[in-house]
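Reproducibility note. Readers wishing to regenerate the assembly model reported in the main text can use the exact inputs given here. Chain order matters: entities are listed in the order in which they were concatenated for prediction.
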Amino acid sequence: MSLRTRLTRWSGLVTVSVRRTLSRATDTDQQRIQFTVLGVAVTIALLVVVTGIGVGLATSTTVYDDDVDYWIVPETDGDRSLLVATDQPQFGSVHEANDRIRDHDDVTFASPVLAEVLRAEHGDASEFVLVVGVVNSDGLDQVAGISTTGLSADDPYYDGGERTGEAVLSQSGAELLESPPGERITIANEEFTVEHTDAGNMGAGGVPIALVQLSELQELTGADEYDQADQFVVGTTTPEVQSDLEGLYPESNVHTRGEMTAAEIADSDISLALALAAFVVSLVIGTLFVLTTAGLEIVADRTQLATMSAIGVTTRSQLVLTGVQTMILTGLGGLVGSIGGLGLIWLTNTVAMETLTTEPIAVSHPLFVAYGVLVALVIGVVSLPYLLVLTRRVTGGVPS
Amino acid sequence: MAIPAPDHRTTHPPIVAATNVTKVYTRGSGPGRFGRLLGRSEPPTVEAVSDVSLTIQPGEIVGLAGPSGSGKSTLLHLLAGLEVPTEGSVQFQQTDIASYSTRRRTRLRLEEIGIVFQRFHLVDSLSARANVALPLVELGVGRRKRRERATEMLDRVGLGDRLGHKPGELSGGEQQRVAIARALVTDPALVVADEPTGELDTETGEQILAEFRRVATERTVVLASHDRETLAIADRIVRLHDGTIVEQGDE
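Running the prediction on these inputs yields the following structure tokens for the assembly.
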């Protein structure tokens, strides 16, 4: 057989397979064919959603937040959280800026935050602690996971009042310094009174933390000259405040607390693991599904395969028909699933933004359609050997 | 390919000949190695055709007659290369096809043998024209020629206006005519038909037989049937009973 004849035969077989598959999907064998397509589509849709969330984490656009808190940070400090960045560029005139933020109708609380690692002493105990300066106000329940209970409101020392010397220690700080409430401790040679100790709920393990008035910490560190702080924390009732916050300082970024968390998650490669796991699970489940449904399809088709064999269509050609049909069905399932997956991403984001977040949880991109179809075709390729063996087994003989 | 009908019985070598052919079927699967070790017995067997010899000349119309279970369909399948004999040989154009590989026998059927089944056995998801063109796809015929040839064949069996219809949209008689067109599209030397009117009413059956009469003017035809009307078109009737030939004679 010449090459041209072979090519003609191949193209003819592909045409027959396409016609046959489409006809069965829409007319003669709708249920079984549609079930195969649907199975692949559901698998791919889930893959696309999970991948969208994974990519969302990796690109730090994901937000998890239950009370809409914003962090305003200097631009170069955009993806660092409070606990890992204490020596970055700082904001100036922060008390004045803080007043402007608080004047916003939708802001429930706001505070500049200055963090420094300083030596604290009590009796014979001496430890380095993370000292965090804040301007306390109603609604500012916690900073760095430590309760602000015990700190006077509005940083009275900055307004020309008496130095308060108030400090709130984390549980670990209190234990290390052996300082229960009422004890006096020394931080950078200045005396503070432990007003309160708090076990806190932050994920910083046993890092000892001391919350103090912002201006009193500024004085200890020299940050009082330009009224400096590292960041602002803002509580608000509406995400629309974000754009106003972005205009506060020219070179600053506004993030939600969730973004900080998400960035750290992304740094730990969880997003990659998530996407990879979704790929592997989709491949396995999709393949098992195709093997089952397409396998049943081939067994049910045995009379037609025997007929083809009887009229002279070789087993090899029948394998081409089976192979093309499998790839068409999985490809179609991939396309439907990818589009469905993008729809699910939209739905997920819509629900999340209504109930949990201020920004989309998952990323949606047209490339996901190509990705979904590609994975579906891989499912088809992985399924092919078994389906071809099955075809070879059931074909031949005399059609009954 | 097509062979002229006249003076065929003695002047040409036989187109197909069965010599001492026996076909035994096994009911169920064998015991396997472990089964034999455990003393399981071999499954029962059935001898469908027993030591049959038959010669068919080019251009001849042969009718295989006999009651159900007499072995006529099995003999037809052996002559068409759909099955291989347990013993004996089947020679097509003087070559033993029992020794052929499955692939080679399939190729032989594609090029030289047209088959018509009792239940039509069309591919239900393809149109009438696509069904008829299917063997041409396997032969590597180009799309345009396939369409032309399939249309021509369907015109010849009176279905020129049913080209795009799927089998489910055609009557039983129309489906059988599509099957006949499919069997003839490669212009085979031999056409075998197993109970071609078995699923049809009398009137439609007569139409199908008329088609076979037309077919028979151009090629060799072997029909298996227990229907007197169907067998009436045969030049020679071979009567089988319990897998053996008990009688054969002209018309």
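We highlight two features of this model. The beta strands of chain B are 16-26, 45-56, 61-65, 87-92, 95-96, 113-116, 190-194, 220-224, 236-241, 244-250. Chain B touches chain A at residues 77, 82-83, 102-103, 106-107, 109-111, 115, 117, 119, 121-126, 130, 134-143, 146, 166, 168, 182-183, 186 (CB under 8 Å).
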